[in-house]
Amino acid sequence: MLAEIITIGDELLIGQVVDTNSAWMGQQLALNGIRLNRKVAVSDNANAIREALSDSGKRAQVVLITGGLGPTKDDITKKTMADYFGMKLRMDADVLSDVEALFKRFNREMTPTNRLQAEVPEGCTVLRNKNGTAPGMWFEKDGVIYVSMPGVPYEMKAMFSDDVIPRLREKFSLPAIYHRTVMTQGIGESWLSDTLEEWEASLQSENIGLAYLPAPGIVRLRLTAYGNKQQELREKINRKIEELPALIGKYIFATDDIPLHEVVGNTLLSLGKTLVTAESCTGGFLAHQITSVAGSSQWFLGSTVTYANETKTGLLDIPQEIIVKNGAVSEEVALRMAENVRKKLNADFAISTTGIAGPSGGTAEKPVGTVWIAVATKDSVKAKLFQFGDNRERNIVRSAQAGMMMLLKTIKGEF
Amino acid sequence: MLAEIITIGDELLIGQVVDTNSAWMGQQLALNGIRLNRKVAVSDNANAIREALSDSGKRAQVVLITGGLGPTKDDITKKTMADYFGMKLRMDADVLSDVEALFKRFNREMTPTNRLQAEVPEGCTVLRNKNGTAPGMWFEKDGVIYVSMPGVPYEMKAMFSDDVIPRLREKFSLPAIYHRTVMTQGIGESWLSDTLEEWEASLQSENIGLAYLPAPGIVRLRLTAYGNKQQELREKINRKIEELPALIGKYIFATDDIPLHEVVGNTLLSLGKTLVTAESCTGGFLAHQITSVAGSSQWFLGSTVTYANETKTGLLDIPQEIIVKNGAVSEEVALRMAENVRKKLNADFAISTTGIAGPSGGTAEKPVGTVWIAVATKDSVKAKLFQFGDNRERNIVRSAQAGMMMLLKTIKGEF
How far apart are CA B386 and CA B331, in angstroms? Predict the structure, then answer.
């Protein structure tokens, strides 16, 4: 079964908003065996919306629409859809009571604009919005289903998971599909591809698709198979994944699509151990990634972000003369940062980062991208030098990843 | 002039990669007076790519294509494009030498797959890639320009800015367009819309478009005008923006599209003052946002992330009895965090955050979303209580924003 996504909003075309909705919906569709054929973004313009509805309706059995349903006057989606399906707008009492309840809950006054959100095309099935004021709308026309959802991500996600997917599952009998993703860190796409050449050829003979999905410092290998029986597809793919550790084992940190910081969290949680960090070049990003996981307070105690040299002394008791002698970006300082923060906060493990994220601050001896990372345990502290590139954002991300990978290797006794 | 964007890659449809390229390209096109009409994502499939090229070529004068050019074998874009334009592939000596130089620079061995990246369709104009191995390709067919670029964001961005935009400017005579964005924090979209009703009506009579662009805690108001003379459009929009402070002044933090953390950085830099932060519920996100700005080391000294109660004592000398008596999420603790970190690190200003980000940890008295934020100066320290929602990620973002907004107001003497 084919689906298409239409996202609506001038803000998407003018680039003031990055569309994360359609990526999330694509994941959910794939997990449910629905193939996303195409996605298109159009402006808040009745003709463009009508044309997109018509084009997608010709190719797909399900057309998912997000955006263009906000309370403000630049939104014309609802009216255009009502016209397209030949319906009039009516006030929906249930939706109105949802909107009223939401305003009551947040103790805010309701405006006339908010009331209008409770209007819906008369022939559609209304999907109630538990998290916002714009209802979803489900239409059927010439055997094609069209579902309009709000553009606010958490409103759309709840509606899609709780309401849209169950209705689609009920409506269609879906083909089997199986995906699995292997996560690698610290190895480039081309090098991986050449290392895996033979293995990749063996996938083709088993009719398994492979995609390399690179992100800074990370390459994900996604295996996909379509067929009749989910169980067979699963076994076929899992057999191939079991061959990978012998080929690229030291780069693999997960055999499912899990971010590195979640792997770190799961590992520490299962061991009952605690972590602290001492960050210079990562500037809080490492702590932020770790604490983005709910429940991280069970194993993460805290971090020091010591951007200025004086702060390295003030928070971590690293003598100025050590910093002056070795430089802030040095093995000695990285080791002391990790060791001192671990002791000071009484944790089992510590990761430290000190480097030159760029774009300025580099020298001939220590160019931009030079990063020292250390990991301390109760028994040892070790540091490693990395040479990343010249992009600040990527250097920050890669430093955080390299630190977490070093921690995992230290725990496994491989570093 | 109309442009369309085609992004290519199964990973976009299956949702394993969020497309940030097209948003960025949309911004650049708008800044250059080129209107993005539509963007579409298709799979790594020759038919889908051909259909998208043909559809976009009928509607637009410029078709921009990204993705599908990596070194691995799932990439078929180059071959499909060569076929579509009736060209054969040839080895390009300049591109080959670029690829070789890149591998030399990073001290890595070149693979046979990498060599193939230097093949290009024989009739296209080659756009050299300064940051990666896949070259860009510029085609012209029936008066329409097609430009294929790599999908890796920093490779695409450099090529687009340095090569594609100058070539498009040379080729077309572009219409005048002017955008300006006003940034607000701490006020919802509906409330803004109702407050600005009269002002908004006055925009319509001057033929100025208005869009409300909400993000967690932030609403951007984007004004747009098209016409003949850039200078007239600019003056017309700026006159309307000057009316806003009287209506919603206390929510405005910028009258250009600048993130809050950059406004904070610019303000501190111009005053020659320094900032530190003490974070609990924001978990390093505040420091990360601040240090994502290059040069932030000039005014940001560091942060403590004190997730565990013991860490609040260990790093910030807050007595356990104070924490036990008031709770970690309390005015008293927020005040001491800000005051102590400022003194300890000898900074001019400090922001502290302590709250319950969720999803767990809430109580009847202090539900999820309860956040105390304090700002300390050399003369004063003040705290404010916020009640955000029940989404962890949003609560972290909104807490960081509220803290930065409080700092700006403190500096202006408004808090």
Answer: 11
